[in-house]
């Protein structure tokens, strides 16, 4: 996986996570500050512990991306006892018929990322049923060898992957956006009951 | 340039502003006070002030005197109203200054002759008329001087006297003539050869101290190797030594512990060259003595074209550039260099002969090894000089090595007067204390050689070396384990081996001067500042650690011969001839060391573009750019013919003007041992070498056959032979001569030799890349058969039109369909459903979702039962597909 894709994707995921936190009102508005990205206003948490968790997750994601073993990232909104209530799914699949010259400067990718961020603003009605003390989790879908490799990596020692057994099944999908960055397709949708 | 002039850091550079102002003022005061003393001849230059820029004839000093006598003012530092007197100016200066008042020195002289101030405009150095400045008589001098110096021609006498006559300055001519006659004598007695002379190389190597030192060093390394190879490691002399030490009866019971349980001795003769030289000159003992080529204190006649100021300026500039590159700002560090205290050539202190070694009496006055004679004389006017005594050095060094080698062969030879010895075993065998051993050993060396030496002991080579430094002169020092920590704190970083000017200046900029200070730095930050390797090395060194153990068996890595003194060629042929001799020298050295080499490097020193034509040091190389070119051979060789041929072709390719060359060197690397080589040498290569010999003989015979007609018939048989053999014989040589084209440092642009390789790698890459998607496809097929089926369907249904269309067009079609008012056709409904299904298969659900929402909204608007049924059917199809692909239903609002 090329570094360009990894960097772009990580940046996008970071922005997406922070904005979901904001729009799903998982934390009070006061911890967010505004930033400008993709030529629009985005929100960013300035709470150190929240940011640390997100950054460490992103570091693991980066490692998985380097190995090319990342299938899916899920951003789950949970209740206070970590029962998953809904999740934002970021599917990654390789586009074999990718044309190198297409979107060489990632202009379309940027527009698509902006569209995703704007799309989040339209989802407020989906968050109305969530409990007051909601929380969130980030899931990585990878294969076992990558998980073992990462467990052995001293850099990620302080933040190991924890395997989850319970996979909450949802009934519905709400497509959000699908676009490609370089030779990968990013497919975003929400899952909920 | 390598050693810093430590004792004279205060050269005025650090306090430029205040100091300079004071100096200028003082100089002007001096000038005006002189004015009153001197009897003024005339007042023609009243109100005229001059500033002399660069080299002029008459010289600045003479002009100063003239101005003094004729009522003018001479400024040592330029003022805006000054006339600038110059004979020629370098380009850079010309660009910087306004040329309106740059006047040739003849203006002053002619004005004095005419007894009035002439119009200076007639003497402008750079007038707008673009006429060449008249240099006719100057030119004459340059020519004659060049010839006398370069060839040492026999009719010097005539030429020199003619130059003396040509010198226009009548006031000074008397002393000049004296000077030149001096020079005549010197030239007569001691004609210095240039590289053009056929005997130059042997002469050069006979006189080059660096050559002798390195040759001796290499010789002793080889000597130890040989001794170790031949020795059975039984040392009968140890018994005598042991007895001698016991007989001394001052058994110091105090036993010393060294780190790592090793005892490494470093032994170094005290100012080797001087003490050897003093054996022949006992009358000079106790006096400041220096070993140098220079006669000391005899001033040389100034050679024209020499511009020391410019050359030294260039050296300084280079030093500055290096520092800037190293990230050290100049303001913080004072720049001192060896050339600081050198006067001009006709000065008493102008000698640029290097001091190879000086006695401790001289060192006390601030003289250091490597200092130029001129600077040294300034410090110590009664400095005695003794010539080199290369035979003596050899003899003493041999005695030294033999003395040690009779006890142990765990010796690492460093140079002719310096070695490391691992005494761990030896002392165990002897059963004596280190202290007694050192005393006795030093006594023995002193007796045998008549020269003092110092020894240092430590747990590793670094400690031993630092201990020797402490022991000098004529002493011994034991750096035991308990002393080290304390000892290292005060060691200056400059004294560590491997810490040169560059590194020490960098460290000084960081505020570190001693090892103790450096110990506070972490390994990581040291490495960050100095690079990984040096950083780690220093980190160890400043704690007295040294990872390198002694190497008793040294392997030679390169053989080279280099001359950068006296290289003044006129033509290419002279240059080629010289390279031939140099190749011969390399060849004989390779034979001496029994090695063959694969890589031949030609090193040329070329006069830097802005350096003066004549060098500051007589026949030295001056300020140069170095050019290195190398070529690799297929087979290791030490053959003179091959080396010469390669070097010649390299030299021809470089296309350097032979007149600009200042130094030549040939180096052979990638060495193989000759003995080893012969073992592996196959019959084929032997066969080939035999042929080469035959072939060369053949050439000779053929040449003779042209002259002598009679043996022609006999010659014919070998001739045909040679024709048969020549292709075979030639092929390896062709291979070796072509290789430089391919392997030379930088690949030539657009070179075809590189392209095929490139293309090949691309091809391979492409193949690899093409291979990968293929396998991926296979995987996909296995994983997900539906997809494959879908793709096939897609291809077959493309004719139906709808499936190939983008979703926006489909939406328009749907709109038209809804608006048509017809009852929906079943096949149309299926087609729409199939389109949406396909979008799900392709995971384009975000656009599919828009389409579905459009579909549902329009049907809701129509409020028609048939269309409702259509919608239910289509949605059912879509949700089924969603279940198949995503295992979840599409969210369609809270129904």
Briefly, what is this?
Chain A: Residues 3-190 form the HORMA domain. Chain A has 193 residues and is of the alpha+beta class.
List the helices and strands and how they pair.
The complex is a heterodimer of chains A (193) and B (895).
Chain A: H1 3-23, E1 32-37, E2 40-45, H2 48-67, E3 70-78, E4 84-94, H3 107-120, E5 135-142, H4 144-152, E6 172-181, E7 184-192
Antiparallel strand pairs in A: 1-2, 3-4, 3-5, 4-7, 6-7
Helix pairs in contact in A: 1-2, 1-3
Chain B: H1 16-37, E1 49-52, H2 60-69, E2 73-75, E3 83-85, H3 91-96, E4 102-103, H4 106-114, H5 136-151, H6 156-166, H7 173-189, H8 200-207, H9 209-230, H10 237-248, E5 264-269, H11 272-280, E6 289-291, H12 308-325, E7 357-358, H13 360-364, H14 373-379, E8 384-386, H15 390-405, E9 411-415, E10 418-422, H16 424-430, H17 434-449, E11 453-458, H18 461-471, E12 476-478, H19 481-489, H20 501-509, H21 515-518, H22 523-530, H23 532-541, E13 559-563, H24 572-593, E14 595-607, E15 624-637, H25 640-654, E16 661-673, H26 674-680, H27 683-707, H28 712-743, H29 754-783, H30 785-797, H31 807-819, H32 826-841, H33 845-862, H34 865-885, E17 889-890
Parallel strand pairs in B: 1-2, 1-3, 3-4, 6-8, 11-12
Antiparallel strand pairs in B: 5-10, 5-11, 6-7, 9-10, 13-16, 14-15, 14-16
Organism (chain B): Leptosia nina
Region (Disordered) (chain B): 720-757
GO biological process, one term (chain B): error-free translesion synthesis
């Amino acid at each position: 996986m090329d570094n360009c894709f990894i960097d772009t994707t990580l940046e996008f995921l970071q922005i997406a996570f922070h904005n979901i936190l904001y729009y799903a009102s998982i934390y009070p508005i006061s911890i967010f500050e505004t930033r400008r990205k993709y030529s629009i206003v985005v929100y960013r948490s300035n709470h150190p512990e929240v940011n640390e968790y997100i950054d460490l997750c992103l570091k693991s994601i980066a490692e998985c991306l380097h190995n090319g073993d990342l299938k899916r990232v899920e951003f789950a909104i949970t209740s206070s006892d970590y029962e998953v209530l809904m999740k934002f799914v970021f599917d990654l699949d390789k586009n074999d018929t990718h044309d190198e010259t297409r979107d060489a400067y990632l202009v379309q990718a940027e527009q698509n990322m902006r569209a995703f961020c704007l799309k989040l603003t339209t989802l407020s009605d989906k968050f109305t049923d969530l409990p007051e003390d909601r929380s969130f989790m980030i899931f990585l879908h990878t294969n076992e060898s990558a998980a073992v490799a990462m467990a052995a990596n001293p850099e990620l020692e302080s933040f190991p992957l924890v395997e989850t057994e319970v996979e909450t099944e949802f009934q519905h999908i709400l497509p959000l956006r699908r676009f490609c960055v370089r030779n990968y397709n990013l497919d975003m949708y929400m899952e909920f009951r | 340039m390598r050693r810093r002039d430590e004792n004279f850091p205060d050269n005025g550079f650090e306090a430029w502003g205040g100091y300079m102002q004071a100096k200028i003022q003082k100089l002007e005061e001096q000038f005006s006070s002189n004015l009153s003393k001197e009897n003024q001849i005339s007042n023609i230059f009243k109100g005229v002030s001059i500033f002399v820029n660069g080299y002029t004839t008459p010289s600045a000093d003479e002009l100063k005197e003239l101005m003094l006598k004729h009522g003018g003012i001479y400024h040592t530092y330029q003022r805006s109203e000054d006339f600038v007197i110059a004979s020629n100016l370098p380009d850079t200066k010309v660009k910087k200054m306004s040329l309106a008042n740059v006047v040739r020195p003849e203006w002053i002289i002619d004005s004095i002759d005419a007894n009035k101030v002439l119009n200076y405009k007639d003497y402008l150095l750079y007038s707008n008329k673009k006429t060449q400045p008249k240099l006719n008589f100057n030119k004459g001098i340059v020519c004659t001087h060049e010839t006398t110096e370069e060839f040492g021609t026999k009719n010097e006498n005539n030429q020199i006297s003619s130059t003396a006559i040509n010198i226009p300055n009548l006031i000074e001519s008397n002393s000049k003539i004296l000077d030149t006659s001096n020079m005549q004598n010197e030239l007569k007695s001691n004609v210095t050869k240039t590289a053009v002379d056929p005997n130059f190389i042997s002469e050069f190597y006979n006189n080059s101290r660096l050559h002798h030192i390195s040759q001796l060093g290499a010789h002793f390394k080889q000597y130890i190797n040989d001794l170790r190879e031949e020795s059975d490691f039984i040392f009968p002399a140890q018994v005598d030594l042991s007895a001698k030490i016991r007989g001394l009866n001052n058994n110091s019971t105090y036993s010393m512990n060294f780190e790592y349980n090793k005892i490494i001795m470093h032994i170094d003769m005290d100012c080797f060259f001087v003490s050897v030289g003093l054996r022949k000159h006992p009358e000079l003992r106790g006096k400041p003595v220096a070993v140098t080529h220079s006669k000391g204190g005899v001033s040389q006649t100034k050679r024209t074209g020499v511009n020391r100021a410019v050359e030294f300026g260039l050296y300084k500039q280079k030093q500055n550039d290096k520092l800037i590159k190293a990230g050290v700002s100049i303001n913080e560090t004072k720049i001192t260099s060896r050339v600081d205290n050198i006067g001009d050539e006709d000065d008493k202190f102008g000698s640029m002969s290097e001091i190879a070694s000086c006695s401790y009496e001289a060192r006390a006055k601030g003289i250091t090894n490597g200092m130029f004679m001129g600077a040294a004389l300034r410090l110590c006017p009664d400095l005695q000089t003794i010539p080199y005594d290369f035979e003596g050095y050899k003899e003493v060094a041999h005695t030294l090595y033999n003395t040690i080698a009779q006890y142990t062969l765990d010796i690492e030879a460093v140079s002719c007067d310096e070695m490391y010895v691992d005494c761990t075993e030896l002392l165990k065998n002897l059963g004596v204390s280190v202290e007694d051993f050192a005393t006795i050993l030093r006594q023995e060396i002193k007796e045998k050689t008549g020269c003092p030496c110092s020894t240092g002991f430590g747990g590793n080579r670094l400690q031993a070396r630092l201990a020797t430094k402490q022991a000098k002169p004529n002493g011994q020092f034991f750096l035991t384990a308990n002393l080290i920590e304390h000892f290292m704190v005060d060691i200056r970083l400059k004294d560590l081996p491997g810490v040169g000017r560059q590194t020490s200046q960098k460290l000084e900029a960081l505020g570190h001067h001693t090892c103790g200070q450096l110990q506070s730095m972490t390994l990581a930050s040291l490495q960050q500042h100095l690079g990984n390797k040096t950083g780690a090395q220093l980190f160890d060194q400043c704690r007295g650690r040294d990872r390198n153990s002694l190497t008793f068996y040294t392997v030679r890595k390169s053989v080279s011969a280099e001359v950068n003194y006296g290289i003044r060629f006129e033509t290419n042929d002279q240059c080629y001839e010289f390279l031939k001799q140099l190749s011969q020298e390399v060849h004989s050295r390779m034979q001496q060391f029994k090695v063959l080499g694969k890589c031949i490097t030609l090193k040329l020193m070329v006069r830097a573009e802005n350096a003066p034509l004549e060098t500051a040091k007589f026949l030295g190389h001056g300020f140069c750019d170095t050019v290195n070119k190398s070529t690799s051979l297929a087979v290791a060789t030490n053959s003179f013919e091959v080396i010469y041929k390669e070097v010649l072709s390299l030299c021809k390719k470089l296309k350097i003007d032979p007149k600009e060359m200042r130094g030549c060197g040939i180096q052979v690397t990638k060495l193989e041992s000759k003995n080893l080589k012969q073992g592996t040498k196959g019959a084929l290569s032997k066969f080939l070498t035999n042929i080469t010999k035959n072939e060369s003989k053949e050439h000779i015979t053929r040449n003779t056959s042209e002259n002598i007609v009679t043996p022609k018939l006999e010659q014919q048989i070998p001739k045909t032979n040679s024709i048969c053999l020549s292709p075979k014989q030639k092929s390896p040589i062709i291979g070796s001569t072509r290789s430089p084209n391919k392997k030379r440092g930088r690949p030539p642009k657009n070179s075809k030799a590189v392209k095929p390789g490139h293309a090949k790698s691309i091809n391979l890459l492409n193949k690899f890349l093409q291979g990968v998607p293929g396998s991926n496809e296979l995987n996909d097929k296995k994983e997900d058969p539906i997809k494959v089926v879908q793709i096939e369907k897609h291809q077959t249904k493309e004719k139906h039109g709808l499936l190939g269309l983008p979703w926006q067009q489909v939406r328009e079609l749907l709109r038209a369909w809804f608006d048509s008012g017809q009852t929906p056709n079943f096949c149309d409904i299926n087609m729409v459903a199939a389109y949406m299904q396909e979008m799900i298969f392709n995971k384009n659900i975000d656009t599919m979702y828009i389409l579905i929402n459009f579909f549902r909204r329009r049907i809701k608007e129509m409020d028609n039962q048939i269309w409702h049924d259509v919608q239910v059917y289509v949605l059912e199809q879509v949700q089924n597909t969603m279940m198949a692909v995503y295992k979840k239903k599409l969210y369609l609002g809270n129904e």
